[in-house]
Amino acid sequence: MAARVALLASLLTLSYSQEDTCQGEDLDAVELMQKRSNVQTVNVQGGEAAFRPELACPDKKKCDSKHVAHSPADYKKCWDEKRHCCVSPDLYGQVNSKELPDPLYFAGAYQWITSSDNLETMLELRKAFGDHPKVSLGVQGLVGFNPIAVWGEDEDALLVFQFKDESVKASAVPPTWATWFHLFQEQAPGVEFAYDVVKELLDAYVEIGDDDVVSAWVKLTHCSRECSVPNYGSGPNVTEECGCLSNVVHVHNALTDYRNANPYDGLCIQKLFKITKGKPTAGQVRAAFNVCENMLPIHTGFGLGYNTIVNPLKTVKSGHLACFLNVSERLAGRELVLPNMGLNDTAVVDGPNASVEIVLPGVPSEEWIAENAVSRFC
To answer: Quick check: 147 and 234 in contact, CB under 8 A?
Structure first.
């Protein structure tokens, strides 16, 4: 992954051209912005910082083009029939408890959803593994769980939906670094990120070379990789025992307490600035993004999902030799964020396009995850 940081005299933008499309795809502007951000410019103290990632497009799956899921009901039919259908870009998904909470996401001012790219891959998992726990291992990996959660049968589900209306659709944005800096400065009075801090954070991601985004998290926070992507159990763990910087641990603990007491408000980042007297370091900012809006160490910042845990579809033949898969082969499809609302405010709930829940297989134990999740690099 190659990119550069430069100074550009413009406000926050996502600039893109038709040449940036994935070969053979006919994308509208929104889809293209979600797939490949050409230049992201963040307006901060002392100037503007631009971040230009050159990205691989998501893997193209050979879905069954004769069967296309246009509605959530269509998708459920494909799931029930174990058919790897193609999926309309108007469908979105979210992994949640079977008894849907309100708001939908467990914490944060924003909820995370997955796109038709990953919904197609989930149908491929269902076709390959049926009701086996590997389906849930793959689904969790695609939507960014790390560590993987243990859950029982009939407890958790995949919510498949269409947006309630065009205004909700317009509020869904790719979770790029530029987007996050803009949202935080817009929603919280007194939040203005210093240029040097933004540049240091972006540089950490620009300069990873052949490493993955977890290495950027490690560089910024000094937390060990083992604590940052634990695969199972609790985490990510931000402690001095994990090697994390003491000022990062302080912010992490204080904001965790704040978020536990205020699970959904939009002022968590404002709290960061109060804790640090308006001068958070790049490591503290990165830790705060995780606590406040669930940007785990595997967060890419360019709109595509990623996980160190290899999709089970890629381990069928190679088993633990899947550790040879490189970073780009562990990328997932597009992801989006939008305000954290209840189901009725987010999705169509009545009529032929009403949302559906698909109960996912249980994940039996941490021991099972340890035996079946391939996450290391050879």
So the answer is: yes
100, 159 contact by CB (below 8 A): yes
**Beta strand ranges found along the chain (DSSP E):** 5-7, 14-15, 39-44, 47-51, 64-69, 85-87, 92-97, 110-114, 156-161, 304-306, 331-339, 356-359
Instruction: Find out whether 116 and 88 touch, Cβ atoms under 8 Å.
Output: yes
How far apart are the C-alpha atoms of 25 and 98, rounded to whole Å? 35
Stated pTM of the model: 0.86
Euclidean distance between the first and the last CA atom of the chain, given in angstroms as a whole number: 19
Same domain, 200 and 283: yes
Residue pair 92/161 in contact (Cβ under 8 Å)? The answer is: yes
Asked if residues 84 and 127 have their Cβ atoms less than 8 Å apart, the reply is yes
Residues in the chain: 378
Residue whose C-alpha is closest to residue 85's, from 134, 140, 127? 127
276: containing domain: 5-57+176-293
The amino acid at residue 275 is I
- Average pLDDT of the chain, as a whole number: 87
230/191 same-domain check: yes
Tokens (6 digits) for 172? 């869904």
Q: Which of 320, 293, 294, 295 is nearest to 309 (CA)?
A: 320
What is the per-residue pLDDT across 322-365, written as a single tens digit (0 to 9) for each? Answer: 999 999 999 999 999 999 999 999 999 999 999 999 999 999 99
Q: Is the dihedral of CA 233, 235, 300, 3 positive or negative?
A: negative
Task: For residue range 43-55, list pLDDT tens digits in order.
Answer: 555 555 444 333 3
CA gap 312, 325 in Å, rounded: 12
Contact predicate 49/5, CB 8 Å = yes
Going from the first residue of the chain to its last (378 residues), give the mean pLDDT of each consecutive group of 10, the final group possibly shorter. Answer: 28 30 36 37 51 42 87 98 98 96 96 98 98 98 98 96 98 97 89 96 96 98 98 96 98 98 96 97 98 98 97 89 94 98 98 98 97 95
Phi, psi torsion values for 14, nearest 5 degrees: -125, 110
CA distance 12 to 319: 44
Per the rule left: phi > 0, alpha: psi between -120 and 50, beta: everything else, 82 is left
Q: Cα dihedral angle (103, 106, 109, 110), rounded to 10 degrees?
A: -90
Domain assignment present for residue 377? The answer is no
Whether residues 127 and 73 share a domain: the answer is yes
